[in-house]
Amino acid sequence: MDFNEIFGKIKDLLGKVDFGEIWGKVKPYIGKIGDFLKKTPSIFAAFILFLTVVFDPAAGSTESSQLIRDEAFVLLDAYYMGQGITNDGTYYYTSGAITALKLAAIAKYDMKTMKLVDKNTKPLPNSLKNRGNDHIGGISYYNGKIYAAVEDSKDYKYPCIVVFDAATLDYVTHYDLNPRRFPDGIPWLAVNPDTGMVYTSAWSHTKVIEQYQISAVMAHVREIDLSGLGELDRIQGGEFYDGYLYLSGDNRDTGKIKNVYKANVDTGYVSLAFTRDVGKSDSEAEDMTAFLTDDGAIFHVLDYNKLLGVYIRSYAVDL
């Protein structure tokens, strides 16, 4: 074995590494890695976070959105927040699911510190789990409750809206929906805080949004025919802001560029609100929430990197 040749190859490899670029990506997370080192299993968690940050292509701004913050979460945090996100102005509420292991979770984070406040790793009652409900998708906060889109991810026979108490994260009740309206599951929902109406849709190539009324025991109100773009596909989440419904799209035809749509629920008109550069083409866009923070960010979107990391990416947008 020629050690001189081996060392020469290592030297050449290191010469191609842009340590300045790596440091630029790692520097914003030094504090978070430090926090990990105070916990158990600290070294492993910090190592996974380091790998996630270093080897994921950097997300960025686009012509229509400015990336303000990009926060990475791994291991248990990634499990707790891999699907849904909403807020009440003080806390982020998140949902997660590992469908293959039939695991689901609801969690609460302080919006300013991003410290975990509470979690519920057994949020669904046995009556739902026994019939196959195992996937909590998009969520929305309203009047002290968390409304969650829940499905049985194998057969899609039991789409439902599950309600949790925001203070305790405990299950309160659920409402079964007509499965004919959701032939491939119920991936998202959003509550209009001004009206108490819930909006959701089927997963793929849908031309309608379904509207339900909370005060009428989740009665179906109407189907909203879509115009403008005319069809929604792979919508993962949504939230209301300033009277409009904004929707997070996991569109696959534009590579690393993901879309956020704007819907007028009175008319059904849908337009492209802004685009996001998520860094790599196989990142999965998840749920989103809206809240104007001190740094100018309005929209906060979950992205799953298909490994062990989940990001909350916050954007300033010219509305």
Key terms for this structure?
single chain, 319 residues, alpha+beta, Tachylectin-2, Chain A, 2 domains, five-stranded mixed β-sheet, four-stranded antiparallel β-sheet, 21 strands, 16% helix
CATH homologous superfamily grouping of the largest domain? Glycosyl hydrolase domain, family 43
Total E-strand runs: 21
CATH architecture identity of the largest domain: 5 Propeller
- In the sheet with the most strands, the strands line up as 14-18-17-16-15
Low-pLDDT regions = 36-41
pLDDT averaged over residues: 88
Structural class: alpha+beta
| Total domain modules | 2
The CA-CA distance between the termini, in Å, is 63 Å
Helical proportion, percent range: 10-25%
**Largest beta sheet, briefly?**
5 strands, mixed
Instruction: Please tally the helical runs, counting DSSP H or I stretches of 4 or more residues.
Output: 6
Strand content: 35-45%
**SSE sequence, one letter per element:** HHHHEHEEEEHEEEEEEEEEEEEEEEE
Task: Using the CA coordinates, give the radius of gyration.
Answer: 21 Å
Given the C-alpha coordinates, what overall shape results? globular
Oligomer status: single chain
